[in-house]
C-alpha cells in the first residue's frame, strides 16, 4: 500500500514501524528538537502520500507536549494527504470526559475540536478510558480493544485455576470480556475513591472465590497504581496464590511499578501503547486490521 504513509511521532516509533510493515505503507519518521525554552521543532523525513496518511502518536506524559506533537503531525500530513487517520494508542485527557464537579472543563470536548481543526479525518484509539469521550468528536472514531492480544499472552502461561479480577465495578465489563476470551471466571471488587483527595478504599468484605487460585487483575490503565495496590493487599489477605496485572496502558507514574510489586504482584503485563519495561504485548496487528 505505497499510496499510504505511516507518520510516526516520537512516543510510539516502534509501534508505528510495526504497523507500517504490516500494511506495507511508506514509513515517515519525525525528528524532534527541543529548544532551551521548551519549544519543540519537528522535522519529517520521508515522502507523505497524497491519498492517505496515518499518524501514530500516543499522548502520555508530558501530555501537553505530546498532544501538540500529535496535532502538528496531523496538520503537516493534511497539507499533502486528502485523508488523515490519527491513531492515538493512548489518549491523554480521556478521564476528563464529563463535568464531575461544578466548574470543571470537559477537556475531551476541547481535544475533539483541536483534532478536527488540525485536519484529522478520523480517530483510532486503543482501550480509551471512557467511550463517552469519543462522543465529543463530530467525525469518525474507532476504539480498539487490546484484550484479545493480552489474553493470548496469558494463555501461554501455566496459571493455576486462573480467576480474572476487576479492581472496581467500573471495570466489570472489561473483566468479563477478558475472562470470556481466556475461558475462565471473573469477579469485580467494590472500590470507593474520594473525588477530591484521590484516596482509594476497597469496600468488598471478602472474596472466597480467590482462595488457592492464580489471579489476573485487569484494568485499562495504571497511573499511580493506587487501585491495584489496594486490590492486591486485599486479595493477598484472602489467601490467593500468585497475582498478575494485565493492563493496556502502563503509565506507572512515581515508581508505581515498584509499589505494585511490593504489594505482592508477581508481574505487570501491558500493551505497547506506551513504551516501557512492562509493554511486552504487541498490538500492531490489531491496529493494522482496524485501519485498512
Question: What can you tell me about this protein's structure?
Answer:
There is one protein chain. This protein has 292 residues and is of the alpha/beta class. It folds into two domains: 4-145 and 282-291, Rossmann fold; 147-272, Rossmann fold, CATH 3.40.50.2020. Helix content is 30%, strand content 28%. The protein has eight helices and 15 strands. The chain has helices at 13-23, 63-80, 107-118, 147-155, 172-182, 226-237, 256-263, 284-291, and strands at 4-8, 26-34, 40-45, 52-56, 83-88, 122-126, 140-144, 163-166, 185-188, 191-193, 200-202, 215-222, 243-250, 265-271, 279-281. A seven-stranded mixed sheet has the order 3-2-1-4-5-6-7, with helices on both faces. Strand 13, helix 7 and strand 14 (265-271) form a beta-alpha-beta unit. Helix 2 (63-80) packs parallel to helix 3 (107-118) and helix 6 (226-237) packs parallel to helix 7 (256-263). The longest helix is centred in the first third of the chain and has 18 residues, at 63-80. The radius of gyration is 20 Å and the shape is globular. The N and C termini lie close together (10 Å). The mean pLDDT is 94.
Entry keywords:
292 residues; 15 strands; single chain; 8 helices; 30% helix; seven-stranded mixed sheet; Rossmann fold; alpha/beta; 2 domains; six-stranded parallel sheet
What top-tier CATH class of the largest domain fits best?
Answer: Alpha Beta
What structural class do the secondary elements suggest? Answer: alpha/beta
CATH topology of the largest domain: Rossmann fold
Overall 3D shape = globular
CATH architecture of the largest domain: 3-Layer(aba) Sandwich
Question: Strands of the biggest beta sheet: in what spatial order?
Answer: 3-2-1-4-5-6-7
Unreliable parts = none
Q: Count the beta strands.
A: 15
Largest sheet: 7 strands, mixed
Amino acid at each position: 500500500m505505497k499510496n499510504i504513509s505511516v507518520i510516526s511521532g516520537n512516543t510510539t516509533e516502534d509501534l508505528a514501524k510495526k504497523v507500517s510493515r504490516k500494511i506495507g505503507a511508506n514509513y515517515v519518521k519525525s525528528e524532534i528538537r527541543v529548544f532551551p525554552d521548551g519549544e519543540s521543532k519537528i522535522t519529517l523525513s520521508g515522502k507523505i502520500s497524497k491519498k492517505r496518511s496515518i499518524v501514530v502518536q500516543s499522548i502520555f506524559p508530558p501530555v501537553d507536549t505530546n498532544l501538540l506533537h500529535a496535532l502538528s503531525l496531523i496538520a503537516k500530513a493534511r497539507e499533502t494527504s486528502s485523508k488523515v487517520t490519527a491513531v492515538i494508542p493512548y489518549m491523554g485527557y480521556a478521564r476528563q470526559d464529563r463535568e464531575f464537579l461544578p466548574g470543571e472543563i470537559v477537556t475531551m470536548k476541547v481535544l475533539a475540536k483541536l483534532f478536527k481543526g488540525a485536519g484529522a479525518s478520523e480517530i483510532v484509539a486503543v482501550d480509551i478510558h471512557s467511550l463517552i469521550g469519543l462522543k465529543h468528536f463530530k467525525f469518525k472514531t474507532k476504539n480498539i480493544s487490546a484484550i484479545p492480544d493480552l489474553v493470548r499472552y496469558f494463555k501461554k502461561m501455566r496459571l493455576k485455576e486462573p480467576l480474572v479480577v476487576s479492581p472496581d465495578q467500573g471495570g466489570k465489563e472489561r473483566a468479563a470480556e477478558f475472562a470470556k476470551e481466556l475461558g475462565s471466571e471473573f469477579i469485580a471488587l467494590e472500590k470507593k475513591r474520594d473525588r477530591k483527595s484521590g484516596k482509594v478504599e476497597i469496600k468488598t468484605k471478602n472474596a472466597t472465590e480467590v482462595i488457592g487460585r492464580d489471579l489476573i487483575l485487569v484494568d485499562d490503565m495504571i497511573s499511580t497504581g493506587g487501585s491495584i495496590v489496594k486490590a492486591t493487599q486485599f486479595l493477598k489477605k484472602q489467601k490467593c496464590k500468585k497475582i498478575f496485572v494485565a493492563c493496556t496502558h502502563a503509565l506507572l507514574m512515581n515508581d508505581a511499578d515498584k509499589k505494585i510489586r511490593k504489594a505482592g504482584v508477581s508481574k505487570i503485563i501491558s500493551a505497547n501503547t506506551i513504551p516501557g519495561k512492562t509493554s511486552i504485548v504487541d498490538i500492531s496487528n490489531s491496529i493494522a486490521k482496524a485501519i485498512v
